[in-house]
Structures are given as C-alpha cells and as structure tokens.
Write a structure and sequence with these properties.
This protein has no helices and 11 strands. By secondary structure, the protein is mainly β.
C-alpha cells in the first residue's frame, strides 16, 4: 500500500528547467521528511535536497544550491523539486524517499520511489 511515485522527468536542454513531483500514499505523509536523491550511471546515489515534515526546513547539496527548490504540500501528499539552470551534470535518475531522521544520508530513508529519468542534453 505504501507508494512514492515520481513524475516530471524528461529531456531538457542545458539551461532549461524541470519540475519533478513526488506523490505519496499509504502512510502519514506529514510524519516524514522527504528527500530527493539522484543516481547517474556508474556513480553513487547522491542526496540532492530534503524538506522537513511541515516544510519549514530545507537542505540542498552544494551542487544544486541556488538552482533547485524543494517544497511540499501535505494536504496534497506531494513534494516538488523545481530544477532550474540545468546542466548535463544533472543528468540522472531522480528518486524521492521518506525518512524519520533529518538529513541527506541515504541510510536514513526507509522507503523509495521508482525514480524518474532526467536527461540534460542538446
């Protein structure tokens, strides 16, 4: 019954923007921090951003600060990742996940979505 479903990925040109969505069901959404992670081919999974249970605290990886914005609406059971000024280094599969512990360390997260592909290329 637990579900985290990412959407919004696709192909975008360098300098472009995408907005990813993560929609949850089957659990008390507001009881969990939500993180976005990404994994490029041959690379470790990397924490991108996370948002606290009520949306009051956000963290970003240095590589995306100033370009990406995370937000949530618990009434909609949804978290978004707005991605601007995209570069080819942002190409990866993007995953959302839930955690009861604050941070961007993957072991904190106990349930993951299936991922959505983001490709930044001309």
């Amino acid at each position: 019954q637990l579900q985290l479903v990412e959407s919004g990925g696709g192909l975008v040109q360098p300098g472009g923007s995408l907005r990813l969505s993560c929609t949850a069901s089957g659990f008390t959404f507001g009881a969990y921090h939500i993180g976005w992670f990404r994994q490029a081919p041959g690379k470790e999974r990397e924490g991108v951003s996370c948002v606290s249970q009520t949306g009051g605290i956000t963290n970003y990886a240095d590589s995306v600060k100033g370009r990406f914005t995370i937000s949530r609406d618990n009434a909609k059971n949804t978290v978004w990742l707005q991605m601007n000024s995209l570069t080819p280094e942002d190409t990866a599969v993007y995953y959302c996940a839930r955690s009861r512990t604050w941070g961007l360390k993957a072991p904190f997260y106990d349930y993951w979505g299936q991922g959505t592909q983001v490709t930044v290329s001309s």
